[in-house]
Structures are given as structure tokens and as C-alpha cells.
Specification:
Strand content: 5-15%
Number of helices: 21
Largest sheet: 8 strands, mixed
Helix content: 25-40%
Number of strands: 12
Structural class: alpha/beta
Radius of gyration: 45 Å
Strand order of the largest sheet: 7-8-6-9-5-10-11-12
Amino acid sequence: MDQAPSNGEAVASTQGRLGYEAYFAQLPEPQEDRQRRYDPSHAPESGSEPDTHTAAATAETAARHVVSAEPGVTEQSSIPMLAASAPLIGEPPFTSLHTIDLGNVSKENESQSGSRSADGAHAVHGGARAYSRQHSVTDAHAGSAAPGATASQAGRPQPPSALSVRADVAPTAANRVGGTDIEQTGMLPIALTSAELLADIAASRQAQLRSTSGVRGALNRVGFNLGLSQTEQQTESRHARIRRQLNTPYQIAVLSVKGGVGRTTTVSALGSTFAGLRPDRVVAVDANPDFGDLPSRSSRHPFGLTLRDLAQATKLEAYSAVQSFTSIANSDLAVVASPWSPSSVEALSGAEYLSAVGVLRKHYNLMLIDCGTGVLDSVTATVLRTSDAAVVATPATVRGVTGAVATLEWLNRHGLHRLVASSIIAIVHQQSTKPVVEVNRIEELFDSANHSTFQLPYDEHLAEGGEIDLRLVQKDTALAFEELAAALADGFPAESVGQQKLGGHW
């Protein structure tokens, strides 16, 4: 309601009151309000105590008519409505907060609300607001005055109401109480909480990896914040390739037809590279039936258990039971030793190998097999038939290159075309001096046959012949084995989980 006018506006106030009474005279009143109908003749005299009960009833009745003017509102709900800050002349002032129970609105009022005239529904004394069902505030209705009201009355500021609705907030279930629209004050629009906006805010200031080597690393140590160099970015990319996920067991055979070319050294260093960078389990198996010495290049078993012991054991469902047959290197590489010893009278057979590897496949994703030099023996033939990829180790000599070519030819002639296609040539430098042959010509030879080649440089730690610790090798040597591991990881299958594979075939 409007603020009370001054004494000079008595005539205008009287006219406004006539319009106010004319409007509410058209509306039926609930039974309990008819006894409290406002009577101008009983207005309290100036200086007398205000009748707050009569004022509260008047405000409650007016608010109830405004709400009941909306057809279809039948839900039980109560909405607080703030009374006008000041009454008209002759009415007692009141500022209390009243509650309107929408459930008490009679159905008779709803049935008669459609027959009310537009002028009577929107003409409220002092420019009272008409609240739209479409969640918008109509300025024309809010600014209209009752018949007989002066311009000064129509332009007066209106009191705030709890039923006011923001026009920029879309109607949702969250801003409706009992079927009635309420104001969503202090709430963000849905568009401002979208995932795209939050992502843009998060991306505006992201942390980055800082360089730790070279000039960039030196500057970062004195307060700069420089990102990774190109070399460091390549290292991160290479490690990501090595960590490529494996959903099925994968077996890599490392072989050569000539002994003493660095095959076992390659298995130990390559397996340590995989185990140090991958999150899953990696195992290296010594399947050389003649003279296997893989444990001497990695880690020896404390009790001397071998691959044959694993093949003959029972109750191997648990990983801890299988792990007891392995030795663990400093890089977390698990190693299974060959059963060969000076007192051995029987060589490892293909059946024993299949039995032991069948158990290892249940607990290890990646397996590297150190094969013997004889491709015709039972165990080596079984290893090649069950492998997914092959690394052919060869020294940087003419005889070594000739042996590597012969090995690939033998695989091709015996139907192992799949293994030949995925094979990689590892050129091992066993001396610190420059090789006699031109290594570039060797690489061109294998490149012409679509075989990738990688050079493994000479390293003093590897040449010692003892257990290999990658923390002691040169940077170039570690980089060479990482490149080899990344190339092999690029060939990992991308099959879905649950597919089973044995012997390199589905």
C-alpha cells in the first residue's frame, strides 16, 4: 500500500479511498473477514491507539484476493507477504509480516475469478502490482492506478512483495512453492553454473610441469617458472608410450642364433626398463635349455627355485604363491631362472615351459623370454610359437648381421610370418671402439625389409657382466633401451578386457 499522504493531499487520498473500496466491493470476502470489513465511519481519531488487528486483517484480505485472482491455485502453501509501510489517512499504521495460506482460498473465489473485469483485476489503489502467471512483471499493470486516483498517487514507490518474480530467471520446479512462483533472490542462473564455464575458469590458470634440467632447470631453481624443454617433452611422450595399457598377456621373445651377442643383457635391461616405467607386473623368463644365466644379470633366487619347480608346483591360484618362485630385481622386475645347472641331466622341455608360462599369464601382463641359440630345440620352438613379438639381437659385425638375416629367414620359412612382421632388430655394440662395419648400411639393409632397427651403445656398466642396475648406465644407454621399449609398446594390442589369448593366437 502507499505511504500516507500529507494534509494537503486529503482530497486525493479521499478519491483514492473511493477507488480502493470500489475495487474490493466487487470481490467476495471470506466469511471470517466480513465481520472485520473496514468502515470509514469507525476510523480512529488522531492520537488514539492504532487498531493493529483491523489493519492486519485488511492487508491479509487484500493479499488473499490478489493471490486468488490466479485460477488453478489450490495447493496448500503459505507465502509471506510484507504489509505496506504506511496506511492511508485514517488507518492505523502497521508493518508486521503476515502469512497467506493459499489452501484456505475458497473454490468459490476461483470460479468467480474468471468473470472479473480486466480493469477491476488490475486496478489497485496506489498502483499495486499485478503478478503475471508467465513469471514477468508488467510495468503497465504495476503503474496503473485505480479510478479517481491522482498522478501523484500513481507514481508513488510501491512496497516490496515476496511474490515479486525476476524476469531473467526461467521458471523451474526449484522456484515454485505450492504451484506459486516465488522470487529466486541470491541464486545464480543455471547458465552460469554450466560445465563449460567452470572448465574455462579452471583452465585460465593451470599448473605446469617445470623443467629440472639444463638452463631451464637452473633458472627455475632461482625463482623462474619455465615449462618443460623440447627434450623433456619428448621424454614424457616416450614414457607414456611405454606405459600403454595391456588388457591381455603379451609375450616378447629375445633370440639370436649365435651366443655371446648380448641377448641376455638385452633381456635384463629391457625388462628393467619396462618394470621401472609400467604400473603392471613384468616378468623375465630364462628359457635357455643349455646355459641360462639370466639371474646373474638381474637377481638370483634366494632358494634356487627355477622354471621347472614352478611347472611342477600345485595350488598356485594366489599371486603370492607364484611370486615365491621368482626373484625381484632392483627395478621390480620379476625373474624366473632356468633349471640348467652343472648337475642337470635333463634339459627344459616345451611341455614344462607351457605349464609354467600358463601360470605366469594369469598374474603378469608382460613377459620377456630369453631364448636359447638353437631354434630347433623343443622349448625354443614353443617360445617362438607362443610369442607376440620378437627382438633379434645381433652384434655390429658382418657375422652378426648374417646370423640375424638367417634367423628371420628361418622364421619365415616355418610359418611364423606374424612374428617376422613384428620383429625388431637390436644392434648391440660390445666394444667402445668404432665398429669395423658401417652400421648405417646395416640399418638400410633391414629397413628395406620393413624391419625397425635400434642401436644399443656400449656401456661400461653393462660390460661388467654382473647384475644390471639402470641407475648406473649412461644416459645414452638408458635412452636407447627406452626407445626400444616404446617401439615394442606401440605394437601392444588394443583389445577389450575379457578376451583370452594363448600362444599368440585368439
